Structure formats: structure tokens, C-alpha cells
Amino acid sequence: MLSGPYLPAANRREARRVLIVAVTLEGAALTRLAEELVDLQLLRADFKPIVLVTDASTMALSRLGLQFETTLTREHWTLLRLPGSYEEYLGRRVATTRQLYKVASVVTVGSELRAPLAALI
Q1: Is pLDDT at 4 greater than 90 in this prediction?
Q2: Which domain holds residue 53?
């Protein structure tokens, strides 16, 4: 069964896009999330996750063919001394990503990976 990036172009355009906000995940936790999202795509070919992360090492997401957007970490935000709060910045990034990808819903995933991802499909 074709899924994810292997779907025909018409199916990718019509897929249900879900923004997964995973800005607190790094390393192994991010890899586990990526693997879970790929498994969910195998269950539902019309499920298209877009992952919002701060981790600079997004190789697991790329390797598995997942789409992602990156944000500044809170530490980098503080060092840059940009106007507004980090929460406002993150809210703007989520809003921009929602608009760009026309997502149907947004799910925030914490370090314990207990988000109801299976309920999305």
C-alpha cells in the first residue's frame, strides 16, 4: 500500500494534514515519534503529518520521508533578544505552518509521547 511521500500526487493533495508540534523532543524521542507517524501512515494512506521541531538533527524525519518545519529553541530565542516572548513566536510559527500546509488539526506531543496520535486517523 502506498503512503506518505509515495502516494500519487492527487492523493497527497487531498490527504488529511495534521500538524504535530514536537518542539520539546530531541534524539531518540524524536526518532520514536517519526517511526510512530510512519506506522500511522501505513494504516491510513490519506494521513499526512507535518512535524514542527526545534531539533537541528532532523535526520530521522528526513530519512523516513516526513515533512517538517523547524523553529528556534528557547535558548536561541533568548540569545537573539528578539522582540516579544518565545511563546508568541512559537504561536506565530504554528499559525504560519497551519496556513502554509492547510492542516486539519494540531496536536502537541510532549517528551512522554502520550499524544492521542492514533485518534488522528
Answers
A1: no
A2: 9-112
pLDDT bin (cut points 50, 70, 90) of residue 25 is confident
**Alpha carbons 50 and 21: distance in angstroms, whole number:** 9
The helix (H) or strand (E) run that includes residue 78 is helix 74-80
Task: Tell me if 121 is assigned to some domain.
Answer: no
* Residue 4 covered by a domain: no
What is the percent of the chain with per-residue pLDDT over 70, rounded to a whole number?
77
Q: Does 62 map to a domain?
A: yes
pLDDT band for position 119 (50/70/90)? low
Local confidence band at 110 (pLDDT 50, 70, 90 cut-offs): confident
Strand residues in 8-86 grouped as ranges (E):
16-21, 47-53, 67-70
CA 28: distance to chain centroid?
Answer: 15
- Residue 100 falls inside a structural domain: yes
Three cell numbers, residue 13: 493533495
Residues ≥6 apart with Cβ < 8 Å to 84: none
Structural domain count, the chain: 1
